[in-house]
Every structure is written in structure tokens, then in C-alpha cells.
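Note to self: the last two entries modelled the partners one at a time, which told us nothing about the interface. This time every component goes in together.
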Amino acid sequence: MIGDPGLNDFSVEANGLTKYFGDYKAVDHVSLAVPTGSIYGVLGPNGAGKTTSLRMTLGIIDPDEGTSRLFGGQRPQAVRHRIGYLPEERGLYPGMKAREAIAFMGALRGLDWSEGRRRAAGFMTELGLERVIDTKIRKMSKGMAQMIQLIGSIVHAPDLIVLDEPFSGLDPVNQERLEMLVRRERDRGATILFSTHVMAHAERLCDRIAIIARSARRFEGTVDEARALLPMQVRYTPRTAGDPATVAANLPAGAELRGDAWHFAIQDADVEPLLARITASGHGVTGLSISRPALHDAFVHIVRQVDAGFDADATEDAVEEASA
Amino acid sequence: MTPFIRSMFVVARRDFLAIVATPTFLLFLLAPLFMVAMGLAGGVGASQLADSARGTGRIVVIADAAEVDALRAADHRLRDAFKRGDAPPPLEFRIAGKDAPDPLAVTREKGTDTYAVMSGALESPRIVERNAEGGSGRYLALLANQVLRDRAAGDVAPVKPRFESIQRGGTSIAVQQSLGFGAVFVIFLLTLLLAGQTVSSLAEEKGNKVIEILAAAVPLESVFLGKLLGFLGVAILFIAFWIAVAMGGGLIAAILSDPGMLTAADGASKAAAALASTPATGWPFFLGIGFVYFILSFLLLGAVFLGVGAQAGTVREIQMLSLPITIFQVGMFSLSTAAATAPDSGLATFAQIFPFSSPLAMAARAATDDAKAVHLLALGWQAIWVALVIFLSVRLFRAGVLSGGGNWKFWRRGAAAAANAATTAADRH
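The predicted structure of the combined assembly is written out below.
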């Protein structure tokens, strides 16, 4: 069922998804295009509209505007059996045994019960959960139950796996196991779409990301492209501690001395001229690091920009109202 | 098997096992025992009360000693015409004369209820009675009349009647109406016991957040139908269990009381005699269609309760919803009972057409009307309503619970789209 990934081969194509809850616009024309066989992250602060966007993408709720098509133009409802979904609000029947719960979720997607039980045992053994295979969900820890639900969402070997905040509530060991599982499913050929507000996971896993803030998509691209939105960060420590003013004269405006090191940002094109100036200045180099900012910084930068825009609009509206 | 049907059975299987494979199901299964025990206790009390009332009542005749034998003989003959329980209270005599008590004083004697007292000449007796509508006074008048007729006719040879029972086609309309009422009652009782449970079934999914998994994996229609199917399975198991218990109990009782009865030819004829009260459509059809109507009644009311209950978020809300639901059920029962006792009335026709009373009323109709084709029409009509109720319930559920009101709140969608278009146009300018 899994197609060959290609440049124009998208497992998810959502266009202009919009959703109102009452008068509140929870999602505002969000579009997503997830290449087949990729790991795609939907990032955003709490309440940005990630979950609603995913629900509309999967056809769980209807958008007020926009469309969602999966696997080359099919309605989400028509290809449910090819999707695995871990909702943000975890839920299992407390009275069911773990193996049965997984088999049940597989059976909902068309997997044979006995095959579901067999695969459940395999997955659980692999993830170190073999001792609770026949334990009822109500007797498990929250993290264990979450892993059971995760297995339930992939037990039928779906072509598209959608995970809503999959890492929340897991300890670091289980987070690592989950990352391993995600990569393995991608290697199997599945497309992974997941939402998170923890940048470290996205940075390690995602081929592409979309950042949603204030109900709308604010960025789409690779992790590197997101990081490139900010200038590179430089940390320079001179060999000779001369007059700071003479050192600063060779550095870009805004350079800041913290301890014995200077911190400043530069554009990609300014790296070589900077090195030439530092060498020529005679202050020498004890330490020099030039690095891209982390995804975390890019994310915060984007979200703050959006918030600032909203605040400015709100102020403008307030002034207009007051003057009126 | 289509994916829709398959997912429906997956949901049904889960629900069925979740209910049946628990110790509390045993309590539920044995619930009728408690009902029977309560019924027996109430019945015994009522019976004792009735017996006690019968034992203390009487009618009295104050007559000349010479007339007492004639009156007693006439009373004996007349009582033969009454069934046990319908007969007048026991007759007592007081001898007329100087010391004869006043009739009103007799009615005031303690220790017993005196319903009527007759005194004076038989040609023009004075009858004092407690209740003019009760019939005791008229019975005493009939008694006097009978004695006078006997006296006038002289000795007449006693009548020697030959009684024959009606073997075929003899079931009265009243008995058929009683069968119809019985069908309405049984279906209502089973539906009340079993369909009402669906009210709380979706609350479990909402409480433990499984509903989003279900909604993402399968059509909600199949979730609703699967749940109904699961509960229907429980209902059928419940009925099968009690039929087996009743048959087994009956068999054991028969063997213990008369082991030869099972093989004796007259045993079969006794069984046939027991079934002599035949519904208009015949027993096999009546029982079969009654079962099918039970299923449709269950599905219809179950779908309503499921849809209404799906809107509840807490146990308290479910409890509050239960009252109007039970009242609604009782309303359907009353309507169908009225239809069963007056099968040719407009009310009966209404009850047979109104979707939620239709299964009950049509089951009653099968007892009094031998037309069979009309039941096919009714089954189709009820099936359409099952589908319609589930469709509406799902819409309501999606709009209310999953907040997917795109189709439901069409006016809001239209307004939002218009506002959006206006904003876009303004931006262009």
C-alpha cells in the first residue's frame, strides 16, 4: 500500500483548513502537505490549533472551510484503515487487558483479532512491556498505558501515522523508545505526522515542520530552514585582554561582552570578513564558535513575532475605538 | 463483509463482552427473580386480603321457617352459574317472627360485612343493601323470584345438559385481545429492562476518552449500531437464559409430578388444550413476529436512548435523562395497551403507525388480526426509523460532543464564509 516517495508524492494534502468554535476562529486557513515516507512535525504553542488541525486533516471533525485529502486525493473517511492515530487525550477501556486493547484497536482498522494479539505481544516484548501483556489497563501506570495506546495506533501497519503530542507524559527512557519506534515506522515506509511543543524531539526527528501560532500556519520547511531564519550566533574570546572598545571596533554592532567572551550575531555572508578582521586586529583567538541557533530559538522567535503583531493590532484597535 | 459491517461487529463484540464477562452481569441476569419474588410477596398479601374480605362478607334473608329450604335450594342452583370468585357472598338466614331482628340492625352487626338483607313476603320483599351497584341486592331479588317460579311450576325434572368444548376457531375476541396485551406487556418489560441501558453506554467512551479513537477509526454510525447490536446480544442472551430456565423448570416439575405424562398420549392433548387460545395469526407466526418486534422495539428505543444519552457527560446527567426516557417508555406502553384493547379504533391505527409504539401495537395486532402482509410493511417502516434515529443521533453527537458542527450549524458556516469573503475583498482594495 505504501507508495514510493517522490517530490510530488504527498500522503497528506490539507488546504485552507478553517474551524470556528462559536465566534472563536480556532484554525485559520492552515495548509499542510506531508511528503510520503517523511516525518513531519506540527509545532506550536499550547492552544495554537494543532489538535484541531490534525482532527480536521483526519476527518474526525468537519472543517468550516478548506479540504483535506490523503494518499493522492482520497477523502480521509475512505482510507481510515490506512491511518494510525494517537489522540492528544489518551483513552483506553480500563477493564481490557493490554493485548486485547491493542488487538481491539487493530480490529477497528480491519486487522484480524488473532493477528492483532500476536503483533501486540511482539511490540510489547520489543518495548520491554512483556510483563504486562495480560494486565488490565486500570492496573498500569499512565506512561505504560500511553505506550499501549501508541502500539494500538500502529499495530495494523498503517501507511500514515498521526500522533498528537506523543511524547507528553513519557519518561526520558520511553521518549527514546518512542523516537526509535517512529524512525522504524518511517523506515518501514510509513509517513509520520506528529504535533509537539517540545522542540528537541522535532529537531531530532522531523524532515519537515510546520509552525502554527495564533490559529494560522506561520512557517513551513525543514528544520534547517527554520533555524536559518535567525542569524548565526558567534562566541569570541580574544587572547589578549586589551581595551574592550578596540576589540568591539572589529566586531559587528551589538556585540556584547559577557565575562571574557564576546557574543554577537552575524549573517552567513559576514563570516569570512569577520575572521579576517579578527586576525588582523592582533587580539588573537582563544575561543571562537560560530553556530546556527537551535530550533527552539527559531520557534520562540516566530511565535513572539506573531504575538507582537497581534498585540500591535490590538493596541491599534483600542486607539481607534478610543478615538471613535 | 464490508468495512462498515466489520467495524460494527468489532464494537458490538467489545461491548457485549464488557457487559457479559463481569460478575455484575449475573446480578442483572437474575434480576427477574427479584421481580418475581416481589410479585409473589405482593400477590400473597393481596390474596390474603381478598380471602379475608370474602370470609367476612355475607347476605342475609329474614324469612319464614317454611321458606328457608326452598330459598337454600334455589341459592344452591343459582350459585352453580357463577365462577369461583364471582359468586355472591355466603347466604345466611334469620327466621321471621316476633323476635326477628330489624334488617338495618342486621347490617350493623359486628364481626362481618353485610352487603344486603332481604325481609318480608317473597312477592314484595324489602331489600336493604350497602351498595346499589354491588349486585347483592339484585341477587336476593332473583332468589325470591326463583323460589316463586319453582313454587308455581311444581316438580320439574332437572335439566341434564351435555357440555362440549369448542375445539377450533373458538378463541374469543377478548382472549385474543388479552394475548395482544400480553405481547405488549412482555415487549415493554423487556425493552424497559434492556434498552434503557444504552443511555449510559456512550458515557463510558466519553469518560475514558476512547471516543476519539473510535471516531477516527470507524464511522460513528457503525459505533452506534455496534453498540445497539452489543446490547441486543445481551438482551437475547438474557431472554434465552430465562426461556431455558422456564423450560427446564417446567420439565423438571412435570417429571416430578407425573413421570408418565411425557410419553402419555393425553399429555400431548393436554398441551394442545393449553394452546387452545390461539392468536389470530397462529402461535408460530405470533411468537416469531413478536420476537422480531421486540428486536425492532429495542433498536428503536435503544437508538433514541443512545442518542439522548450521548449528549450526557456525567453520571448525574445520565440519571436526569433517565426519568423522561422512562416516562416516554411508559407513554408508549399506555398507547399500545389502549390499541391492544381496542384493535379497530383510530387510536390503535395511530399506535401502529407512530414509530415508537409501532412494534408494541403491531405485536398486539398479530393477536387479533390474521392479516400477515401488513407486518412486512410495519417492519420496513420501523427499520427506516431505526436508521433515521441513528443518523440524527450521530449528527447530534458529532455537533455536540466532537464539536464537528460543520454540517449542523450551517448558518454559522455560511456567515463565516461570507465574512471571510468580505475581508478578502477588502484586502484586495
